[in-house]
């Protein structure tokens, strides 16, 4: 949760007052609450209310509910724009927050404007516009279900389609409702300010957010109920609103969450007013009077405001006294102490009350109040931090836990700038982190040298070591330099960093500077530099003790002076309890003393400059002066102690002594001065040593007794009462010389309290001034003059010992770096730029080519026009024949002929469309049909002549003949055989054959073009693949060229390391032993140089190719998938689509021909058959043969429709139309496919039942045919659209695939190839850095364990 808290703390870091002016703040709070009131009133009224006179008051309610905005949008008809704004704004707020979270996660600095913009958007979304936005998303969810025809919540002006987003609308509305709910919870938990930063009568701070959360819950429920229950049960909705707002008002009055009376007043007023107005609407509903509601609303506002004000005054006056409520619930207790929190009149006394209440009722909010009170009222920020630092911010109670987290972070930041102890504690944290990093670096460096010296390594392991060591080197330098920049008088840091530079990093010059600076600092501090009780000094040690209950009193951090003082090692001291260093009589109660102090203290100082005693590692007593403070840091309170050591003298000893003379812990030389040869005389009475010893002799203060010890030497004895904490201790001092007693008096009177306000310079923040400016300036000036006290040393500023052994070696390294940089650039150009460009060009050409072909084939405009022309001509021929039969025999009189003229008009329109669509299919040879005049037709009956004409002219001639017959039928004209001959033998014969053959040719043309498309696509993809292969070969040759330079570099590194391995290992072992208390045993077996492994030939070539090969493999995979998955699929779809459409559209014409010849077969025994009407010439097949041919053709087309390839061109609905169900009569219920079979069987039955069927049966059959053709036409239109969309979708998927793969290729380069190339370049740079720290000569630089000063030892001197 800490990460979430960090994000919200970035948005709401501290108290953000709108204005310092109380009047402006009152205006802001009043406008805000009135806005919420206006939005809440929108819940109570209905736009389509049935109340009498509602239309007269409708505008009134629109005006006072204007803050909700949707009434205005309804009234002025911009609801669609308003809905769009709500969606865009909510999405933008979410995106702003996500981007802010990402930036915070990467620990980058955010612009102030961006934070303010995000904060404003969250405020609008979760507070100011929470009600209208949430209501709108509930409405979108409601009306996206497609169950409503009008919107109930608005007037008739709003179309339901505005809010209907189908399933998508339900999905995103639920998502945004959830997001707004979660955001609102966190907003209410994090946006409010618990810290009372202003004592003004008007502010927005509050003690808790429970009441506001309750109000938000009520608002959220009302948003839902207003879109659900309000329309179905308006009365129940109003009653629920009354109770919910009543509960909110009561809770606000009872808890008084805001510190300001005005803010509480307005908040309570809004909720009481809402409760009252919901009741007023209920009364108006019962009375059916809209005017009553308006009058109650207008005249009730002032009385409600006065009533609320008096109620709050009464509530405040009834709060109990602070002394009578200490043990109560904290939230009740807080109401009683609120006036003291703002005034601060009780000072530390109020803090004691808070502590007592916390003991009775532990509450995190209590500790938060304590912390802010200490910081703001008592002006003791560190004490405030100590109060809150141990409180955990984990758990699900985000309302309290965020305030805990916020309080900690704020007080830490404030203490960082003001508290000396906090800065010193931070020094220890940073110093020990740097020391641990130093130790880890030395161990890693040691492993690296050992691995190379033994010749057991792999190049990948060395690469990891090189990069890690170079990275750690930079980190360690930065850590030490940052510490010294903030704490320039830290002797331990200068010594440790200086020895690191000398012994490990081969920077002797800068290392000696830092060692020298440490000595300069030590000398300067010894010359009387003024001391703060927490400043560095030569004779001063620092320790930090844990304040956690489970580890109370254990050592966390310490300085080297502390280890030297107690003769301890760092390994022994870490985690050691301070009790084990104290005299035995103090150990048992010490932990309880620390815990009680932490729990009840009203100050941060434990003690200052107090005499104290400690035991060294051998159990001897040491004397010191100690100061201690409590410091809050990280997640607990710790003790920081400054120990001023009183150096022991061989001529003076001392011991604890009980009032009865029992000697306890003593100094090391105490027995020797008494004349005893024992090391320890603990638990021996002084009377056993001196038989005549009497305490009465020491009744005078500071009385010194002179007597002989057991070896007959004169000694001086002094008994002093020393106060340590609350205890009075008797200390027995013995010495040989009275001069030691004078020293003792001076030590006893040494007191730092008279200079407690002085601070050393490193503890000051920038911009502050030293109290002892003159002496500090002199000290800094002295440092700068002697050694350039502080200068950051970069890798390129190494001393001359870090230079390469020869100029050719330096040139080899520079050449390697240059070659690798060139490799990086070349691979960038080839692998990324050219590769990506080639993919985009090749696939772009392919997609463009395919897209052009798809657009040509998908439209099939000419194909449809040709089909419609053939259908219209066949239909017209059938109608003409039926009309002729009706006139000759009276048969089929029941058949409806009213659409005769419509069919003529359709044929005219279709032949014009066919002529106009010539350009769209002119690429096919079949298009010559429109321009050719070689179409045969029969004319001039009875002297039949075979002529030739174009299709268009032939259709026009047919139309003229049909019109003459139709006009003659109306006037009962006879003698139309010539016209009938032309229509029947050309409409059913030549025109059908020509159009049918043309459709066959056109479909074959489309199939051929699809195959050509596949072949050309294959050649394009092969070309791209070959180009990628050539590119890969070029990359391989170039990488092979870089292999030699890189091998030279690695070989040189291995030789350098091998040649200096013994010296480096000795220096590292010395550092680990002396500075890190680690003894690492190594058996150093130095291998001859010729046995050192070198890099294999072409190792880098294989490494680079292995990294970039997958890029070329990925590109090849793109080409392969493009061809196999997309090009092949498009080829199959484009190949089968014209065949499928041809098969379906031909059904209409085939069924008309089937009807024609079925009729002819049925009437074959009558005198009105065609062969009897035109006995001289009968160019058509007999009816039986024609029916057989049509059956064969229809059977062949059925196999095309019922195939897997055809199914891929259909969606579920189209498949259902063809194979499952179709609207119409029973025979079409099972789809077109089975309906054709049914009609074919019906035709066969009529034609071959050997009897002439009834006229009505034939008419019924014809009507079924025509009905089926209408349904088929609808199916054809859908088939063309769906199949075209499927092909376009496949093409679109292909485009998405190509661009998606290109994007993946970019990502692979950015996150795989480029980081690899960058890491390789960085490795070479890091090799240079490592070469700089490896000694070029066998010179060993190390610091001795005793002095820790830099000493340079020549090889001859070592032996």
From TrEMBL:
The keyword Mitochondrion does not apply. Residues 434-522 form the TmcB/TmcC TPR repeats domain. InterPro entries: TPR_TmcB/C (IPR057352). Coiled coil: none annotated. The chain crosses the membrane at residues 21-39, 83-106, 112-141, 162-187, 236-254, 266-284, 290-308, 825-850, 1018-1040, 1108-1130, 1294-1317. Keywords: Membrane, Transmembrane, Transmembrane helix. Pfam families: TPR_TmcB. This is TmcB/TmcC TPR repeats domain-containing protein. It comes from Stentor coeruleus.
């Amino acid at each position: 949760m800490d990460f979430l808290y960090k994000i919200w703390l970035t948005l709401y870091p501290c108290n953000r007052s709108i204005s310092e002016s109380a009047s402006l703040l009152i205006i802001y709070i009043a406008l805000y609450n009135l806005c919420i009131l206006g939005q809440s009133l929108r819940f109570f009224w209905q736009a389509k209310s049935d109340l009498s006179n509602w239309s007269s008051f409708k505008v009134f309610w629109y005006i006072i509910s204007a803050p909700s905005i949707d009434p205005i949008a309804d009234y002025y008809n911009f609801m669609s724009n308003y809905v769009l704004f709500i969606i865009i704004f909510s999405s933008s707020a979410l995106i702003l927050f996500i981007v802010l979270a990402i930036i915070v996660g990467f620990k980058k600095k955010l612009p102030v404007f961006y934070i303010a913009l995000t904060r404003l958007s969250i405020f609008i979304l979760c507070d100011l516009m929470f009600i209208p936005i949430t209501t709108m998303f509930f409405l979108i969810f409601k009306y996206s279900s497609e169950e409503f025809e009008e919107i109930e919540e608005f007037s008739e002006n709003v179309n339901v389609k505005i809010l209907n987003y189908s399933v998508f609308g339900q999905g995103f509305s639920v998502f945004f409702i959830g997001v707004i709910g979660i955001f609102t919870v966190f907003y209410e938990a994090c946006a409010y300010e618990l810290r009372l930063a202003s004592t003004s009568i008007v502010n927005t701070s509050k003690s808790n957010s429970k009441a506001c959360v309750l109000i938000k819950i009520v608002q959220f429920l009302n948003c839902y109920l207003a879109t659900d229950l309000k329309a179905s049960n308006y009365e129940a909705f109003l009653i629920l609103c009354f109770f919910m707002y009543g509960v909110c008002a009561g809770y606000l009055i009872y808890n008084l969450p805001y510190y300001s009376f005005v803010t509480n007043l307005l908040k309570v007023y809004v909720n009481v007013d809402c409760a009252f107005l919901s009741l007023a609407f209920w009364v108006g509903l019962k009375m059916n009077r809209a005017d009553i509601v308006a009058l109650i609303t207008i005249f009730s506002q002032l009385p409600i405001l006065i009533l609320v004000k008096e109620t709050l005054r009464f509530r405040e006056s009834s709060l109990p006294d602070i002394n009578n409520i200490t043990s109560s619930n904290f939230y009740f207790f807080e109401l009683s102490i609120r006036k003291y929190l703002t005034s601060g009149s009780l000072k530390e006394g109020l803090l004691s009350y808070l502590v007592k209440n916390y003991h009775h009722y532990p509450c995190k909010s209590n500790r938060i109040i304590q912390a802010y009170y200490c910081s703001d009222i008592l002006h003791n920020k560190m004490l405030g931090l100590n109060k809150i630092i141990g409180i955990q911010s984990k758990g699900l109670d985000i309302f309290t836990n965020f305030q805990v987290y916020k309080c900690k972070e704020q007080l830490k930041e404030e203490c960082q700038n003001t508290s000396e102890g906090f800065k010193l504690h931070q020094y220890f944290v940073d110093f020990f982190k740097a020391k641990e990093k130093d130790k880890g670096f030395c161990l890693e460096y040691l492993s690296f040298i050992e691995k190379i010296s033994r010749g057991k390594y792999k190049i990948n392991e060395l690469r990891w070591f090189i990069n890690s060591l170079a990275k750690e080197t930079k980190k360690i330098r930065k850590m030490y330099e940052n510490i010294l920049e903030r704490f320039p008088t830290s002797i331990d840091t200068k010594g440790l960093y200086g020895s690191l530079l000398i012994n490990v990093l081969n920077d002797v010059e800068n290392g000696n500077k830092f060692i020298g600076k440490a000595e300069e600092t030590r000398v300067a501090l010894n010359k009387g530099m003024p001391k703060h009780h927490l400043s560095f000094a030569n004779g001063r040690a620092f320790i930090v003790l844990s304040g956690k209950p489970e580890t109370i009193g254990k050592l966390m951090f310490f300085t080297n002076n502390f280890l030297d003082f107690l003769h301890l090692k760092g390994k022994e001291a870490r985690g050691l309890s301070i009790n084990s260093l104290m005299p035995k009589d103090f150990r048992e109660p010490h932990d309880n003393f620390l815990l009680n102090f932490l729990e009840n203290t009203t100050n941060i100082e434990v003690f200052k400059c107090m005499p104290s005693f400690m035991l060294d590692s051998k159990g001897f007593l040491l004397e010191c002066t100690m100061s201690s403070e409590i410091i809050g840091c990280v997640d607990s309170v710790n003790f920081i102690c400054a120990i001023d050591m009183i150096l022991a003298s061989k001529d003076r000893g001392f011991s604890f002594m009980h009032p009865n003379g029992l000697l306890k812990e003593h100094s090391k030389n105490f027995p020797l001065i008494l004349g005893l040869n024992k090391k320890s005389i603990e638990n021996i009475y002084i009377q056993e040593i001196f038989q005549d010893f009497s305490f009465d002799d020491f009744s005078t203060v500071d009385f010194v007794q002179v007597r002989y010890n057991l070896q007959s030497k004169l000694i001086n004895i002094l008994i002093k009462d020393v106060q340590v904490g609350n205890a009075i201790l008797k200390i027995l001092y013995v010495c040989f010389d009275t001069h030691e007693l004078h020293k003792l008096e001076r030590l006893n009177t040494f007191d730092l309290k008279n200079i407690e306000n002085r601070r050393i310079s490193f503890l000051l923040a920038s911009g502050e001034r030293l109290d002892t400016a003159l002496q500090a300036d002199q000290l800094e000036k002295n440092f700068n003059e002697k050694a350039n006290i502080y200068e950051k040393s970069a890798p390129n500023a190494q001393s001359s010992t870090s230079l390469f052994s020869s100029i050719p070696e330096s040139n080899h390294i520079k050449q390697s770096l240059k070659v690798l940089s060139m490799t990086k650039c070349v691979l960038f150009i080839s692998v990324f730029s050219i590769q990506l460009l080639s993919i985009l060009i090749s696939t772009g050409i392919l997609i463009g080519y395919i897209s052009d072909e798809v657009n040509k084939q998908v439209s099939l405009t000419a194909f449809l026009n040709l089909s419609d022309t053939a259908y219209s001509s066949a239909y017209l021929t059938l109608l003409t024949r039926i009309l002729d039969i009706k006139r000759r025999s009276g048969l089929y009189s029941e058949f409806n002929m009213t659409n005769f003229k419509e069919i003529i008009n359709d044929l005219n329109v279709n032949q014009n469309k066919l002529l106009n669509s010539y350009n769209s299919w002119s690429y096919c040879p079949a298009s010559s049909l429109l321009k050719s005049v070689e179409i045969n037709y029969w004319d001039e009956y009875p002297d039949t002549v075979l002529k030739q004409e174009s299709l268009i002219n032939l259709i026009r001639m047919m139309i003229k003949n049909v019109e003459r017959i139709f006009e003659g039928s109306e006037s009962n004209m006879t003698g139309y055989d010539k016209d009938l001959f032309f229509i029947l033998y050309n409409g059913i014969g030549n025109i059908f054959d020509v159009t049918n053959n043309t459709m066959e040719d056109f479909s074959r043309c489309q199939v051929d073009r699809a195959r050509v498309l596949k072949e050309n696509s294959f050649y394009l993809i092969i070309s791209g693949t070959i180009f990628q292969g050539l590119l890969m070969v070029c990359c391989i040759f170039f990488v092979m060229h870089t292999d030699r330079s890189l091998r030279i570099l690695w070989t040189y590194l291995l030789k350098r390391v091998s040649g200096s391995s013994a010296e480096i290992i000795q220096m590292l072992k010395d550092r680990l032993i002396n500075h890190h208390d680690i003894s690492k045993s190594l058996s150093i077996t130095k291998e001859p140089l010729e046995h050192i492994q070198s890099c294999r030939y072409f190792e880098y070539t294989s490494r680079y190719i292995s990294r970039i090969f997958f890029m070329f493999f990925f590109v090849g995979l793109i080409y392969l998938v493009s061809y196999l998955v997309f090009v092949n699929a498009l080829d199959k779809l484009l190949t089968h689509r014209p065949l499928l459409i041809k098969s379906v559209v031909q059904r209409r014409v085939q069924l008309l021909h089937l009807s024609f010849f079925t009729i002819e077969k049925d009437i074959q025994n009558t005198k009105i058959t065609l062969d009897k009407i035109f006995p001289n010439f009968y160019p058509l097949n007999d009816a039986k043969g024609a029916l057989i041919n049509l059956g064969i053709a229809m059977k062949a087309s059925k196999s095309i429709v019922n195939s897997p390839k055809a199914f891929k061109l259909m969606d579920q609905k189209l498949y259902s139309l063809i194979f499952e169900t179709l609207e119409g009569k029973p025979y079409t219920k099972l789809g077109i496919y089975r309906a054709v079979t049914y009609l074919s069987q019906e035709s066969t039955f009529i034609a071959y039942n050997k009897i002439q069927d009834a006229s009505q049966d034939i008419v019924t059959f014809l009507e079924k045919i025509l009905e089926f053709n209408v349904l088929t036409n609808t199916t054809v239109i859908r088939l063309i659209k769906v199949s075209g969309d499927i092909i376009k979708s496949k093409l679109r998927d292909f485009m998405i695939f190509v661009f998606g793969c290109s994007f993946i290729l970019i990502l692979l380069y950015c996150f795989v190839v480029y980081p690899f190339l960058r890491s390789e370049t960085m490795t070479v740079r890091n090799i240079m850095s490592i070469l700089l720290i490896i000694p070029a000569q066998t010179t060993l630089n190390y610091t001795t364990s005793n002095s820790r000063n830099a000493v340079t030892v020549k090889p001859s001197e070592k032996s």
